[in-house]
Structures
1.
Amino acid sequence: MSDSKTATSAHPSAPTGRQVAVLGGGSFGTAMTKVLAENGHTVRFWMRNETQVEEVRTQGTNTRYMPDVVLAGDIRPTTDFREAVHGAEAIFLAIPSKAFRDVIREHAAEFEDGQVVVSLTKGIEKDGFRLMSEILQEEIPRTRIGVLSGPNLAQEIAERDLTATVIAAKEPEVRNRVQQLLGCDYFRVYANVDVYGVELAGALKNIYAIVAGMASALSLGENARAMLITRSLAEMSRFAVSLGANPMTFMGLAGVGDLIVTCTSSKSRNFRIGYAVGKGQELEDAVAELGQVAEGIRTLQLVKDKAEDMGVPMPLVGGLHKILYSDASIHDVINGLMTAVQNSDVEFILPRTLSS
Ligand SMILES: NC(=O)c1ccc[n+]([C@@H]2O[C@H](COP(=O)([O-])OP(=O)(O)OC[C@H]3O[C@@H](n4cnc5c(N)ncnc54)[C@H](O)[C@@H]3O)[C@@H](O)[C@H]2O)c1
Ligand SMILES: O=P(O)(O)OC[C@H](O)CO
């Protein structure tokens, strides 16, 4: 947290009588709980660790994940899943992608018909390349599903820094409800119907944040950073469009917005992993030191395989994979990228003609 700020809660708004649930007691679950509680809603906050529940209940803190944050309002931490979701009009899931399906499957019977269930998770499942909304659709089709994604560093939201996000859902009622529940004077919620594009953008940008962290560690310069972010956008939208996403989604907050923040901020865990590796640290050591999830590492492997299967050129993904898993030197990979065939800038104007 920056020195000049405190993340103590504002006086919560008057109680609204609305009941919501947040599942997952890490950084983002804590930040979203804080927003919802400050907005006057009753928040059932589910996590698996009883000690953490006790700390939230008695101190209003979650020091393992957000050491400087004090929570206020009607927050009911619990390890009891049913108690958390029963009667909640909206359920927000901040569980890492690796555990997402297991948690939902184990508790599928506890969700109620028509409940609004919103994934906050920015990752992809290994088997079948499923996004979290697809897992929800498969495991709990009785519910109404949405996805929230955007330039949303948990720490800044907890500090009430001005932030915007995107709720993507097919049903207008789901979009409207989430906008009402979460929106406030420091948190704006925009709407989109391209669920797949919004969700895939959130997962893909984590890969490029690792690359950007490395570039920062090597002091490659501001021109290089602009090149990297822009070519990342070209690459991730090329991949997503080939899977059916709307290219215009990548012009929005969930696309270029999230890419910018994650590729430029040392508050991003993915960026920090790239920075550490760029400074010479082993990947496993960097991950262990972080102690929180950096989804981009898993996503990189899955996207590389999928892109190769589909024949979609992704030179930045390929280059990062070589650095992390084939012992290629960062300088050799950069040299390879810089001397590859020079292709078109915006592929929607001048189509890419070569596969390099
Ligand atoms: N932190 C952010 O700024 C941020 C912003 C937007 C989206 N997200 C996304 O939210 C998701 C969660 O991220 P985070 O920042 O909260 O991660 P985190 O590492 O801070 O916390 C993860 C939480 O998930 C819990 N968890 C892990 N496995 C579990 C299981 N099997 N059952 C129950 N709980 C389990 C952990 O105990 C921990 O409380 C990620 O997909 C991330 O990309 C994070
Ligand atoms: O800390 P990261 O790298 O997981 O990024 C957090 C958010 O996704 C930024 O929008």
Note: The chain has a mean pLDDT of 95.
2.
Amino acid sequence: MRQIWEHGDQRMDRTGVGTRSIFGTMLRFDLGQDRVPLLTTKRVYWKAAAKEMLWFLTGSTNIRPLLQQGVTIWSDWPLKKYRQASGEDIGQEEFEARIVADEAFAKNWGDLGPVYGKQWVDWPTYEYGPDGRYQRGPGINQVAQVVESLKNSPGSRRHIIEGWNVAELDRMALPPCHKTYQFHVAGEGEAARLNCMLYQRSCDVALGLPFNLFGAALLTRMMAAQTNLLPGELVWSGGDTHLYLNHTELVEAQLKREPAGAPKLVLKRVPPTIFDYSFDDFEVVDYEPQGVLRAPVAV
Ligand SMILES: Nc1nc(=O)c2c([nH]1)NC[C@@H]1CN(c3ccc(C(=O)N[C@@H](CCC(=O)O)C(=O)O)cc3)CN21
Ligand SMILES: O=c1ccn([C@H]2C[C@H](O)[C@@H](COP(=O)(O)O)O2)c(=O)[nH]1
């Protein structure tokens, strides 16, 4: 954060807010002994990040299941679209309440397009006929495939979950930020460990990164549990790694704080597949962060 704030390149960005940005960054975290990269210099709503990760795994791209669990981090985009289309000056809470109450309304207005969940578990395929015409084929479940490849060929260099479906970017509310997850098995037998590298093309360090790190750690832990591997290292790499100019207060407050403590993430159960986890399977212990710091989301 300090590096970006003091040395970043200041520029205007898509949202009109403006950022300071650096390019090509890396963070490494040891996930052994239940360690988890959860910021202690502000309270992070890890529960929302966990619910978001489980939502990706269901393949859903509608904000309704998130809102039913009180998670509002994806509301801004559908809300903006609805306001523009309807001309109605509806407030965020009222919009969210309508999505929850009215299934048909949610179907029309709560969908984000083929974002993460869709690409992860149902990447579209096409089957070509002899006449050159094509029709939809069965979707590809990348997550299930990586679980299988980790079990069957741990040494493979192809354990990848990819969100960047070039052909569908224009239908997504937001093209994926945490776009590529690659897994790697190190060591052998009882001591074999699962490493994960996440490449994030664009990163809102104040709001997005704390969620993305926790989410990636959680995904790695679920993957490791499902493949009988010990949690290894999480390597996070960032493309455009930025701070929004209207996050000044948060940044300055956070830079004055000292990190302290060692939170742990406990997975309480190993369900039959990676798609059978529920929120109650996760517990964070020894988390005593400093106070909440709020900042506006750039839409
Ligand atoms: N500009 C921007 N930054 C992001 O981090 C981001 C996007 N856009 N668009 C898509 C998703 C949504 N994500 C978000 C959106 C909002 C918060 C947020 O407001 N967090 C607050 C409160 C969280 C809560 O109340 O649950 C925080 O203090 O962390 C976090 C991540 C991450 N992504
Ligand atoms: O998981 C996420 C999702 C989004 N972000 C941030 C990164 C950028 O600030 C915006 C996306 O804008 P683009 O113009 O598409 O890059 O959202 C994040 O950090 N983490």
Note: DSSP finds ten helices and ten strands in the chain.
